[in-house]
Amino acid sequence: MKQALPKEHHYIPQFYLNKFSNDSIGGNRKRIYVLDKLSKQKNIKLLPIKTVAFQKNLYTYKTRFGKKETLEDMFSIIEGVAAEIIRKIEKQKELNTQDRSNFSLFLSLLWIRVPYAKDEFEKSTKELYEALARKSVAITPNKYLKDFFKKRGKTFTDKEIEDLKDFAINKERSRLNVIVPQEHWIKMMLSLSIDISPALEITDWEFRIAEKPFAFITSDNPFLLVPGRKMHPFEGLGLLTPDAKKIVPITSNICLIMHEPKKEPITVYRSADKAFYNKINHWVMKHSARFVYSADKGKVEKMIKLKSELLKPKPRILTISG
User: Angle, nearest 10°, between helix axes 182-201 and 97-112?
Assistant: First the structure.
């Protein structure tokens, strides 16, 4: 009998979230504190890791032959390799070229496999196709439109054609429903992860290690792209934006900062003081789409009490890969 495809797809790997749990329970029963920024009460719940950070059929797609498949097996292999590398990082060992390559792929997927990235991709795609469709109508000569309808047995006056064009162009009069196929996003995600990975691999890697247990938190959008200067609202922010930092909490006491690209990138381990991990946690919560994960309930409670603006939805920033 053919085995059914898994339906619950974890967009944040369970092994990764385990690194942010202080639960003494072993195996797949570990729990983690979860803040839902969209909930009315803003309660912080202790939940089993296997029940959080997943969506049904998030990575399910149909092949060109109509067969249903998922990316779960592929992700499992990548995550297994990443788990081994994180164990090396926890021991502050040197990472070789292959380690960097493998971990860069894991990090790039951690950035673009999450629901927030999917939503942003679909939103941008819909906006683009709508703009192209309306522009196409706007630049079409009236004569072509009249001939188009005439061949189909309908006759319109010039005034009626103008009204039809205005209806198609004017967002206040018409609404276009653009559907982005799941397969389109899957293809983009895989392609982009391969393109992004080398750009991460050639940067200097700085692992900041906190002596305090459970210093760092993480979220449903853990890859942070932080500008090194104030950005114009319409300015693009990308991996190669000068001075932009790529930041990812790796465990509850280790955070990775990726700096500028280098011909011979290095890996260093440095300590992280309270001011540093407080700043990182501020960014993590601010840029979370909805959920924040932590081993320390009190830390999250204190953050939202002192800065309630962190509960606002993640700001939308134009993000590009180059």
Answer: 140
